[in-house]
Design a protein that fits this description.
The chain is α+β, with helices and mostly antiparallel strands and about 300 residues long. It is built from eight helices and 17 strands. The strands form three sheets. Strands 6, 7, 8, 9, 10, 11, 12, 13 and 17 form a nine-stranded mixed sheet that branches.
Length: about 300
Amino acid sequence: MALTLAEAAKLSNDVLLTGVIETIIQESPVLQVLPFIEIVGNGLTYNQENVAPTASFFDIGDAWTESTPTFTQVTATLKILGGDADIDNFLKATRSNLQDLEAAVVQLKAKAVQTKFDDTFVSGDTASDAKSFDGIDKLTTSGQTVSMGANGGTLTLDKLDELVDKIKGGKPHMLLMSRRSRRKLTALSRATGSGLLVADRNQLGQMVEYYDAIPIGANDYIPDNKTVGTSSDCSTIYALQVGEGAVTGVTSPGGLQVERVGSLEAKDASRVRVKWYVSIAVFSSPKLAKLTGVRD
């Protein structure tokens, strides 16, 4: 069964771990909705659905034709993401009356883990960094790509609708874009008076914008300076469904971990390690699409 980090936090009795998870999901629209499958081993091999089977009408006595979906076998290999947070014992003893220094330091490390995941979720490429995992930009198939043009182009609602329609089996669960693209979408909605862009609270009580009832996530690691043709100021917008059978996270049993390494020999400090054996999987290619060449 796949669980989101928010659901996993409710099952934890570790106050520090719960605090780390809450910090991570507050800062990341992806981690607020992305469920994770726990696996035993260092990777998950699965069949990615490429083309769905078809059905036909037949007359009496017709020869029936067989149609099966096509699959590609893919392996999502767990990668090690994390970092150490050292808490100086002197500062902890003399300044804890002002704030919980350990909690503050670990919180900053948790944010670093979250930002690295968000970055890799979009732009990860094992060809350039074998220690990471492939992100959705690389995992999107060519048939699921919509282009703004050979040299890019200014975002239009028609093109955004074309992107949404690339997702099969229901609407996307999220439109993920840069802040610049979100501002452009807001301006388009105001100019057209379409009423397709509304704001409402999500499951965490945060105000989120929705385009045609699809939540919009702003990701700080989607670049606005990609080169498409002769244009070097292009961005990308992603549409995705999440969950088993769609886009999901993969993690080791226990998921995100906070480990107290203990006192350090070389300095008067104690160490806390935030670590995560993690990757992502796309079980069905029609559940993920992207719009490329989006200019301001």
